Amino acid sequence: MSEPIVLEGRNIVRDYHIPGGMFSSARTVHAVKGVNFSVEKGKTLAIVGESGCGKSTLARIITLIDPATSGDLLIDGHKIDITKGGLTTEMRRKVQIVFQNPYGSLNPRQKIGDVLAEPLLINTNMPASERNERAMAMLKKVGLQEIHFNRYPHMFSGGQRQRIAIARALMLNPSLLVLDEPVSALDLSVQAQVLNLLADLQDEFQLTYVFISHDLSVVRYIADDVMVMYFGEAVEYGPRDEVFANPQHAYTKSLFAATPRATVDSIKARLARKKVAA
Amino acid sequence: MAQTTTSPSQIGPVSTDSSRRARLAEFWYYFSENRGAVIGLFFFLFLIIVAVFAPLLAPHAPTMQYRDAVLVPPFWEEGGRATYLLGTDAVGRDILSRLIYGTRYSLFIGVIVTTISLVGGILIGVIAGYFRGWVDTVIMRVMDIILAFPSLLLALVLVAVLGPGLTNAMIAIALVFQPHFVRLTRAAVISEKTRDYVVAAKVAGAGPLRLMFKTILPNCMAPLIVQATLSFSNAILDAAALGFLGQGAQPPTPEWGTMLAEAREFILRAWWVVTFPGLAILITVLAINLMGDGLRDALDPKLKRS
């Protein structure tokens, strides 16, 4: 509890209004129904849940892309409401996002160097040479090389693109990084590389992560706290070990039970069950 | 990761130098892959040279009527004369000279009409596609109304209101072509706007103007370039049609379409009066379309071989 709290959400609600058409009346969809959470500096909060449970909606609220319908969002202790008044560049710089699909998150007409330098161009008065220098440094930091600087995104593999997306998110030195299923579009070996990169970067820059995923093995690897969402509600919230060792809610239990296990014991047990059934 | 970095020679001219000259070299590398485009480009450059140096190249004045040489066939035909290489028309004007001077008018019409309709169409289309809502509805309904008229009829009405003449004809044709650009731009902007890279630029703090014109618009250019080259040729044809109806370039202006229209009654008697202006239009349009194709391939990184 010694570390300061970077992100706090109090009773965050998001409703989507679907206007009525000719044959249907207007409806309201409750995407997120009153979620509370807080993340300390340098920690990782994992948000787990099935498709359509409101994970990505919550990510967009935290990243200040969409406003919450009600509830308070505090970043570094400041309450932020994007519906009232513009967002200062100061606030904008604190939160960045990495998207799920590395094929859609990079502008196909921008060279990698420009992709990385763009946030600096918009938010600072740095001269071009310094921007390029910083972009180059960040490129190397995420494990790419100098020759990649003037290439276009389509010349890269999925894993490399995700590294670039991470590098872009880090250009403004944010304190909070929202990772919206950053590895689910990648194959397993590349997943491990990107996760290790994320862990290294967290140590180096003291980053706070909000890690959204449906993959429990990934969550177990990277998370400090886990929040399980189910139909817009947080049904389980606590430290990782506690949630994994002693799930309280029925949904969490079934979620864990659905995860395939590949330990020797579990394989033996499964074979034994098969033999009995046969 | 190391395996994915192939040797630089395979990647093509991807240099670490991002200067203007290097970018130009890179553009030329991809453009020259397409042979048709290069031929089109050279023909287009040839047309520009012809247009600029028309007074030096043309053997006769374009409106000079040689009363002793009415409907003289081209020089290789029986009765042809070497002074009139491509023959003369019904009032004894040298066709070659008129074609050379006509290049000026045709290129001028194409450039002006395409520029006006492209710039206007892009501006309106980006605004409609980016802001959506009632702005979009109002703009698109107005464009639908313009599209509902037969294009030539609308151009004719506009020219009738503005008064006949080449300038007014160009303005009218530009207005008629504009909705196509608006629709294309709007559709492309709508599909690009929801992409993650746009959201990422927004999160990085980009304002609406930057998002519209620097982030989204370059990704919508490929269909617009093709449409622009097509309208370039269509503009030449429509201007000719207006000229034929007496509302465009006025005789004796040596405009290709007007020449074609004037020669209509001699199709059976003197084939050269119709054929050469027609060929000039055909080849020009073909060259411009080829060039447009190559331009699109070179400008779109997604189509580049890497």
Automatic annotation (TrEMBL), chain A:
Cross-referenced Gene3D superfamilies: P-loop containing nucleotide triphosphate hydrolases (3.40.50.300)
Annotated GO biological process: peptide transport; transmembrane transport
Record's signal peptide: none
Localization (cell): Cell inner membrane
Molecular-function annotations in GO: ATP binding; ATP hydrolysis activity
GO cellular component terms given for this protein: plasma membrane
Record's bilayer topology term: Peripheral membrane protein
Superkingdom of origin: Bacteria
Keyword field: ATP-binding, Nucleotide-binding, Transport
Principal cellular location given in the protein's record: membrane
Span of domain ABC transporter: 7-256
Family recorded in the similarity comment: Belongs to the ABC transporter superfamily.
Name of the molecule in the record: Dipeptide ABC transporter ATP-binding protein
From TrEMBL, chain B:
GO cellular component: plasma membrane
Residue ranges of domain ABC transmembrane type-1 in the record: 103-292
GO BP term (any one): protein transport
Alphabetical list of InterPro entries matching this protein: BP-dependent_transpt_permease, MetI-like, MetI-like_sf, OppC_N
Pfam families: BPD_transp_1 (PF00528), OppC_N (PF12911)
Homology family: Belongs to the binding-protein-dependent transport system permease family.
Subcellular localization, as worded in the UniProt entry: Cell membrane
Residues in the signal sequence: none
Keyword set includes Protein transport: yes
Keywords: Cell membrane, Membrane, Peptide transport, Protein transport, Transmembrane, Transmembrane helix, Transport
Primary location class: membrane
Entry membrane topology: Multi-pass membrane protein
SUPFAM superfamilies for the chain: MetI-like
Molecular function terms from GO: dipeptide transmembrane transporter activity
Protein name: ABC transporter permease subunit
Recorded superkingdom: Bacteria
Annotated transmembrane regions: 37-58, 107-131, 151-177, 266-288
Gene3D superfamilies for the chain: MetI-like
